[in-house]
Amino acid sequence: MIRSLALLLALAGLASATPKPDVIVALDGSGQYKSLQEAISAAPMKTDPATPRWVIFVKAGTYNERIYVQRERGNIHVIGEDRAKTVIAYNMHANMPGPDGKPIGTFRTPTVQVDGDGMIWENLTLANTIGESGKMVDGLKVGQALALRADGDRLEFRHCRFLGWQDAILTNRGRHYFFDCYIEGSVDFIFGAATAYFDHCHIHELREGYFTAASTPKDAPYGYVFADCQLTGAEGAHAYLGRPWRNFAKTIFLRTEMSAVVPAAGWNNWSKPDAELTTLYAEFGSTGPGANDAARVKWAKPLTAAEAATLTPAKVLAGHDGWNPQP
To answer: Which residues belong to the active site?
Structure first.
């Protein structure tokens, strides 16, 4: 759904702006590598943000592999041939046993884990394909299952799809920018302590739950900002805008189109009344059947136009180095 001139221009310029790849990944052997992990592991250790990124082009296909980007190999640009047909997929979940026989837990399940800084992922799909949480697979009840764990700083995700159910995206640390992305899941499927800006993204609830569960550190000026986004849901689905994983959670929605998937109350306190005093949950310019300022919980904050205007990527993501990712 094209929702602004800026987005239209960005999409129009996508093909022409694609940089020349340093290596190509292709399942059919037509590139230098058949595995994306092999290509990433072969990338030079260029962590200086002033140097050109190492560019990996990934041809269409489903790559059934787990990806780990170590801190020493940041500054990489991964570009898919087709965001719906270039798929990185795996199927681990929290209740699977580890080497010690105990459940591995949520944080060890990601299909893609990024520790390196300054990385761009563009025009592809990251998926955890284990399926709906609560169902039985191989005698185990499916638990939390990450498609992405983001631990690096200055990470960009452009024209990507993220597919999962419970806990699909963990923004664990750092600053992240999501532009024109599609994200689907159910419970707490965007969660974590990072500062993240979601610009013109489509976020889809599969069943019922919570779009976000921020754990913003107490002294962090920003948590999650969703600007000019679209919230939808499957038939009969319901999802709160957020609930506080930690008591200083910060989540803001700006000019977001909300379907009836969002209940009138908007936000949930996770049965923690004390969190109502410390969280920052706010909206400005919400539209659609799910927008209901009058019925929102009293502890959420309506923003003024002047306050909303300050919440740009340049402001929210600036940090110590003035980072300002562009659409």
So the answer is: 167, 188
